[in-house]
Amino acid sequence: MHAIGIDIGGTKIAGAVVDELGAIVRSERVPTPGDPALLEDAVVEMIRSLSAGEPTAAVGVAAAGFIDAAQSIVYYAPNIRWRNEPFREKLEARVGTTVVVDNDANAAGWAEFRFGAGRLVSDMVMLTIGTGVGGAIVAGDRLFRGGFGAGAELGHMRLVPNGIACGCGQHGCLEQYGSGRALLRMAGEIADAGGIGQALARTRDEHGALDGRRVGNLIAAEDPGATAALRQLGHWLGEASASLAAVLDPQRFVFGGGVAVAGDLLLDPIREAFLEHLPARGYHPEPDFVIAELVNDAGVVGAADLARVWVAEHA
Q1: Is the pLDDT at 73 greater than 90, yes or no?
Q2: Are 251 and 121 within 8 A, CB to CB?
Q3: Which residues contact 304 (CB under 8 A, 6 or more apart)?
Q4: What CATH code is assigned to 2-110+296-313?
Q5: Residue 96: left if φ>0, alpha if ψ -120 to 50, beta else—which one?
Q6: How far is C-alpha 31 from the geometric centre of its chain's CA atoms?
Q7: 3: which strand partners?
């Protein structure tokens, strides 16, 4: 039976009816309300619209933040300013069907594991490289959430002692070295240095600032300054991946998010740094490094399938 997946982002809410094979049957998108008090109404309206005339097994909702998936309680969601929000309880009372709430990076990782770049392996790690760094871990065909439901916050691994301050309150987190925001900072530093950064500096001067699209265009054109920034980013991601491999021993690393469209230009420095920092190199089996396949649909597809799995396991 079909399930509904809802992905709540900072600027938009995406929803879809998803079949058992992960294919989207029907989809909708609306802007995320500026007032968090209106968010519940927007999600309910989308669920009702998607379920009209469409029998569905359950509804899965994905959002950024610390979420206890077992109880579907949102402990903290910064984008929508929620704390200790019993979202499943509220939605089920209004839509009359089973609702499961999970972290958006978990949903995206699960979608790739089931239907995308992570299929055919039992153990994988996904890193979503966007404004920040999201993480998902699948171990033994199961999504790993940890004892309190907040596991796999890989963007907040300590990578550089006493490093750059992070919004989480710590310093040196992976998110400050391996995210889209970090890429822009590195590109700006290369622009300031001159030399290979001339095109970056010229772009910044013409437009007032560097942004992801402009730096991405320069990377696609293989501009030496922009690709140097990407290589720096890839190095940090590869170093972090080596540490993760020492702990988790995954068969595959999957990289998603906007920066991952760079493909091998990103994966090559990741692989190089991974091998440089891998413990017991030459004796430790080396995992695959691949780019995510589901792109913008991963959140809704994963949320829907997690809801379907929950219903099957609790039948």
Answers
A1: no
A2: yes
A3: 2, 3, 4, 5, 16, 17, 18, 59, 60
A4: 3.30.420.40
A5: left
A6: 20
A7: 18
| Whether residue 23 has pLDDT greater than 90 | yes
Which one of 3.40.50.880, 3.40.50.2000, 3.30.420.40, 3.30.70.1520 gives the CATH number of domain 121-292?
3.30.420.40
User: Which among 7-11, 46-50, 146-150 has the top mean pLDDT?
Assistant: 46-50
The amino acid present at 263, given as its one-letter code, is G
Percent of the chain residues topping a pLDDT of 90:
76
pTM of the model as a whole: 0.92
3-class secondary structure per residue, the chain: CEEEEEEECCCEEEEEEECCCCCEEEEEEEECCCCHHHHHHHHHHHHHHHHCCCCEEEEEEEECCEEECCCCEEEEECCCCEEEECHHHHHHHHHCCCEEEEEHHHHHHHHHHHHCCCCCCCCEEEEEECCCEEEEEEECCEECCCCCCCCCCHHHCECCCCCCECCCCCECECHHHHCHHHHHHHHHHHHHHCHHHHHHHHHHHHHCCCCHHHHHHHHHCCCHHHHHHHHHHHHHHHHHHHHHHHHHCCCEEEEECHHHHHCHHHHHHHHHHHHHHCCCCCCCCCCEEEECCCHHHHHHHHHHHHHHHHHHHCC
Of residues 33 and 236, more confidence is placed in 236
**Cα R_g (the chain), whole angstroms:** 20
Q: What is the mean pLDDT of residues 200-216?
A: 96
The residues spanned by each domain of the chain are 2-110+296-313, 121-292
| Model pLDDT, residue 123 | 98
At 235-254, the pLDDT tens digits run 999 999 999 999 999 999 99
pLDDT of 168:
84
β-partners of residue 289 are 253
Q: CATH topology of 2-110+296-313 equal to that of 121-292?
A: yes
